Amino acid sequence: MLPQPKKTKYRKYFKPRGLPRNSTQTHKLGELTCFALVAMESGYVNGRQIEAARQNIRRKVKREGKLEILIFPDIPVSRKASAARMGKGKGKVDHWIAALSAGRTIFLLYGIDAEQGIPALLSGANKLPLRLKIYKL
Length: 137
What we know:
Elements: H1 25-28, E1 34-39, E2 43-46, H2 47-60, E3 66-69, E4 75-79, E5 92-100, E6 105-110, H3 114-125, E7 132-136
Antiparallel strand pairs: 1-6, 1-7, 2-5, 3-6, 4-5
């Protein structure tokens, strides 16, 4: 009888397929305009809110240019089940959040003109629960 493979506790990463492609667009990005979405007040942002804003911005600019996300949700928020009794330890991790201080840049958008980039960042800002401002760099 053959030995069974050992079960892993954590799921493994996918292997990257192919080599990363170098495009000429990345070299032109330094010459083009850059827009920044900056927090005007302190607060917390959920990982799902960041992803919703990212998807909305990418949809508005029709996936052109380059979008950088400068925040990462690294604070776990735990929650016990609603029907759980008191005690028996801390609950499971429910979601992850990122702490933002006022003046922190959230998104950078490169290689898009103003008539397309500013409305895209405004629609992405509507998905976040903070007062935000758009700067042209």
